[in-house]
Structures are given as structure tokens and as C-alpha cells.
Type I cytokine receptor cytokine-binding domain-containing protein (Bambusicola thoracicus), 338 residues
Amino acid sequence: MVFLTDHLNIMANMMRVCLILLWIRILVQPHILQLKAVQVFPPINFTLTVTALAQVLLSWKPSPNQEQRNYTIRYDVKILTPVFEEYDTAKTYSFQTAVLHNGFSARVRTLLFHKGLQMTSDWVTAELQPPPGAENTAVTDLSCVTHFTVSSAVSLHCTWLPGKEAPEDTKYFLFYRYETYTEECQDYIKDKWNRNTECRFSVTHIAPGEIDELIVIHINGSSKYAAIKPFQQLFNQNAIEKVNIPRNVTVFLEQNDLVATWEKPLSTFPKGCFEYEFYLINLKSGNEQVSRTYSHDFRLRIDVTCRYSIQIRANHHKCAVNGFWSDWSETLYIATVL
Ligand SMILES: *[C@@H]1O[C@H](CO)[C@@H](O)[C@H](O)[C@H]1NC(C)=O
Ligand SMILES: *[C@@H]1O[C@H](CO)[C@@H](O)[C@H](O)[C@H]1NC(C)=O
Ligand SMILES: *[C@@H]1O[C@H](CO)[C@@H](O)[C@H](O)[C@H]1NC(C)=O
Ligand SMILES: *[C@@H]1O[C@H](CO)[C@@H](O)[C@H](O)[C@H]1NC(C)=O
């Protein structure tokens, strides 16, 4: 009897499973068929517009043939050059920051979602040609440094080398862009052929203390003999900041210990953001010692019969990418008067 009941139960369960499978077919199949019948059209009028130095606006329109119905439409965007990047968006435009001196290319396609299913259209592609200019006339070896000044402004200093094939009469022009602000250099320093190879901005619109914002540098030029190729580079503002020197460095002896204390450099970053390097020379033996610390003091057992020199420098470290180490503080000496 027990055996028979079990048997019937198994049969009933199998029937149930079959019914459920049938239901799933009925429920799912029509949607697949329905979605297969939906055509997904690529966006139209995909255009690239340069809106600022090293900035492109990608914009497109939904295909007028695309059924709107109850589908979710998004767009898949692929930046192909100069730096590959892929993302999707519900908008029909997107701003990109990229160096444009070698051109720019991107593609976009329509994504259609319906009840958990996704379909894609073909891609449409657009590109910007590199700006004209003769080979090897663009500047090379560009390097830039910013500095937080006592007047709470950020200064900017850039140097570069003229392109190998740049004629002697080449005149270079440097521009920086920070967010929406663009400015041309007014203070150039020239090489012996009178070509601009250095530029200084004592005050800029760069906001001190921002994290990972980009500084765009654009250098183009002109010559009677050749078209000069422009050059662009993006700098993380924190990575090119030359940090200020630690302040109020004091050194004294406490029994047989050398004790140094100091204050954080002039900066919008709080105290906890800095790392310090401590450079100690035993002037009798010539032994040198470099130590790193996050604290604002330093204690070391020394040989009190010797004279020591001490210097400290700083870098921001914990709150942003490393900048350039500050200069060393003025040399301080310590010796026991015996
Ligand atoms: C697409 O571009 C064409 C030609 O420039 C223009 O006539 C048309 O109005 C544009 N379509 C849309 C939807 O903007
Ligand atoms: C869209 O969805 C709404 C509510 O879910 C429904 O009433 C309407 O009929 C649907 N429209 C189309 C065109 O499928
Ligand atoms: C250099 O670039 C600036 C900014 O885009 C532009 O206004 C200027 O006309 C360019 N000069 C030359 C010589 O190409
Ligand atoms: C450095 O010391 C001076 C004089 O004691 C003081 O006025 C100043 O606030 C100190 N600076 C810092 C950054 O602590």
C-alpha cells in the first residue's frame, strides 16, 4: 500500500513537471518570437564635434524607424582611438576628454531591452582626422609643474623641445585648459633661435586641492616654411604638483636623542595627507641616513660627540597621487657643546 502511494506520487510529480515545462514554453516562446520580429536600427546622424581643447562631443539621434513601444533603448559607445573605452548610456550624447593630435574615432549602436532580453543594432562609426602639419614639427618632451603659491593660487610652468624638423623660424604657442577655462600663455622663455620653449603662468584657474582633475596642455605653432603639427597632453593636476617645503622645522637634543618637529607644507590638503623624508648626515663619519615618516616629528638616538646636519622634504601621498617631492628644507645643524 505504501509502495503504491509512493509510485502514484512520483507519477503525479512527473506530470506536474511536464505541465510546468509546457507553461514555460507557452510563456516564453511568444516573447522570443515577438522580439525576433523587432528590428533594432542603428542611431543616425552620429557626429563628433570638438567643443574645447582635447574635448569631443559625440552626439547621435535615435533612428526614426525604431519602434518606440515599451522597449528600453540605450546606446553602446566604443571609443576606438586614441584610448579605447566602452560604456553604455541612455542619453544621445556624451563628452570625452582625449588628446586629438592623432585624430579620434568612435562607434555607437542601439541596445534594445525587453523583458530581460537584449538586442543590438549594427554599429555606426565616426572619426576626426588628425590636424594637418609636417612630420616631426610638433613639440616633444613636454613637462609641466604646478605650484601652490602663498597667494593661494596655482602657478603652472611648462617646458618642451622644438620638433626635430621644425624650421628655425617656428613660433610655438601654449594653451592650457582646466574644466571650461582656456588661456594662452603670455610669458614665454625662448631658446637661442628665439623659439618659445618654456612658459610660465604665475596665476591660473586651476583649483588647488581638487583630486584627479585634468590639466590639458595644447601647443601649436606657425612657420613660414612648414605647417606645424599641434601637440596635446593631459596631466593629472596632483601628479605634477611640486609640493611646498615643510614649515617651522626645529631640531634639538633631548638627552642623547635628536628630536625634530615640523609643520605640514603650505597646501589645501590637511595634515594627514603628507609623507616626509628626513635626511641626516653625521658630519664626523660622513654616514648618511634617509628615513620616511607620516608623522610630524622624528626622534633618533645619536652619538652626542658628533655634529649632524638635518633636512626634511614633503610630498602629498595619502589623499591624492604623489606629486613631485618638495625641495629640501634649509640645512639645520646640531651638536652638543662640550
Ligand atoms: C540628420 O541629418 C540630416 C542631414 O544633415 C538632417 O537633414 C536631418 O534633419 C537630421 N536628422 C535628425 C533627426 O536630426
Ligand atoms: C505598454 O505597456 C502598458 C502597461 O504595461 C500597456 O498598457 C500598453 O498596452 C503597452 N503598449 C504597447 C504598445 O505594447
Ligand atoms: C593654436 O590653437 C589655438 C587654440 O585652439 C587657436 O586659437 C589658434 O588659432 C592656433 N594657432 C595656430 C597657429 O594654429
Ligand atoms: C610657525 O611658527 C610661527 C612662529 O612661532 C607661527 O606663527 C606659525 O603659525 C607657525 N607656522 C605653522 C604652519 O605652524
Remarks:
- The chain has a mean pLDDT of 90.
- DSSP finds one helix and 23 strands in the chain.
